[in-house]
Amino acid sequence: MYPHSAKKLTVYVSRICPFANRAILSLHESGVDFKEVLIDLENKPEWYKEVNPALKVPALRLPNGKILVESTLIAEFVADSYPEANLLPKDPLERYEVRNFIEFYNSKVSPYFMQLLKLNKQPRDENAIDQKVSELTQNLRELNTKLKEHSSKGPHFGGSHFGFADIITFPFYERLDITLEMLGRSINNIKGLDRVYEWARAIRERESYKTRIAPRQDIAKALQSLSKRF
Predict the structure, then answer these.
(1) Deepest in the core among 16, 131, 166, 189, taking most CB within 10 A?
(2) CA distance from start to end of the chain
């Protein structure tokens, strides 16, 4: 039998995985009591097949034995199950704005993480890297505009309130930032990204992020290993 709590939610995660980060952040921020089971992605326990036959993280076991998978769906389940945390707004229009922001991020920013990671090889194609960074910078300026339009004062997408939009997108922004460092590039001193920088800085300072997410050096090590597989 796999490890779990009979009375509490049990979440199976790896702290270096951005998908798993979504689940653990939503649970921590919801205020619910839960059991965390860490999964070594390089040496997954045999029993984990009973939890998720696909062997992916995260997975969330409910006290009744039902197991949920897929990071966005888990985060949404948590948000809806514990509405007092206000991770997702109740108003349909406000929910639309949250989903619209996530859709923009997933289509215009997130793909550059893997595209750039695949360029982390020798010999380096510096021209290809520069082209990708140039494209990314333009899209980040659009992201900056969207953050300002929704909440000019910030620091989060929802202003002072940390929520679903931040939980779903930021783990991938962090890996994008780390990947750029690995390539000898940076997006941390560019005009027109002031709101993005404020957003990133505020999330990194949250208790949930500092205590539940792997340190940057551990994430960088994992990304270096991943890039060698391409």
Answers:
(1) 166
(2) 36
Active site residue 25: no
Contact indicator for 120, 227 with CB cutoff of 8 Å:
yes
Residue 175 lies in a domain: yes
Name the amino acid, one letter, at 181.
E
pLDDT confidence tier of residue 225, bands split at 50, 70 and 90: very high
Q: Are 175 and 220 in contact (CB under 8 A)?
A: no
- The mean pLDDT value for 207-222 works out to 97
Q: How far apart are CA 141 and CA 195, in angstroms?
A: 9
Tell me what the pLDDT averaged over the chain comes to.
Answer: 97
Are 11 and 67 in contact by the 8 Å Cβ rule? The answer is no
Same domain, 55 and 119: no
Buried b (16+ CB within 10 A) or exposed e, 175-208: bbbbbbeebebebeeeeebebbbbbbebbeebeb
Q: Residues with Cβ < 8 Å from 208, sequence gap 6 or more?
A: 24, 25, 28, 29
DSSP state of 85: G
If asked whether residues 42 and 123 sit together in one domain, one would say no
What's the predicted TM-score (pTM) here?
0.96
What CATH code is carried by the domain that includes residue 116?
1.20.1050.10
